[in-house]
Sequence to fold (275 residues):
Amino acid sequence: MNDDSFIPIIFRNLDELRHRVVRIMAVFVVIFGFIMLFTIRDLTLFGYTFPFIYPDIYHNIAAQLLLLIENYVLPANTKILILKPSDGVTADAYVAMFIALILSMPVIVYEISMFLGPALKRSERVLLRTILVPSSLLFLAGSLMGLLWIAPVLFRIFNSFDIGVSAQPTVGLMSFISFLIIYIVLFGFAFEVPVFMYGLTRAGMVPANTWEKNWRYAVVGSLFFGLIFSPGVTGFTEVLMAMPMIALYFAGIYFTRRYERKLGAKDSDTVSETF
Fold:
């Protein structure tokens, strides 16, 4: 391939990438704007009450969701502090961006896969389609675990320590939002362990028996993960948090061995047909 044909290919791919990024940003901006500009209120009509969308930039959907999270996660006696005049609008924007990112994720994954599709082998495209749904569900499960189960216990323990030293439990709004988002994302990625294992095995990089031989290290790593991120100090909560990680690791072993058995059976059938 000479330079005259190579350079147009580069610019053609850059132009396609630009179009796909614009589509992603358009979806993201529409969802973000909707969450920031509208609120959900109850509307009573003919004796029936149902939710209705109203324009309201101050009590928008992001603020409503943030209030629900605060009431669920934080103990009742915790006061939320506004340390800077812009904290309220910044917190709203953070929540809206996080929701918009989650809701636009199918479009993001689709556009990226369509852009990379021509450069991937058939087996790589099949792998991408295979792990797309499980990875999304596992990320959602891990995020919900971090938000609904771990975070409330964690802040109750912090609250108990504050009361123990005769201090009024308080938390800065931006500190609370930043900490919670990082915690949710962390648990979401932690639940991607079996997808990571399956992808490496299917790519031929790590055989299934390697995962099986090193299960002890995985158990120790899961316990270490629980020790770092567990809200308790009694040992029980560390083990309780490590159990899903250990279960996911063994689930990864099961699916990698299942894939290798199917691959071995297919190879055996091919050899039999050849002879």
Summary: The mean pLDDT is 82. The chain is about 75% helix and 10% strand. The beta strands are 38-45, 48-55, 79-81, 170-172.
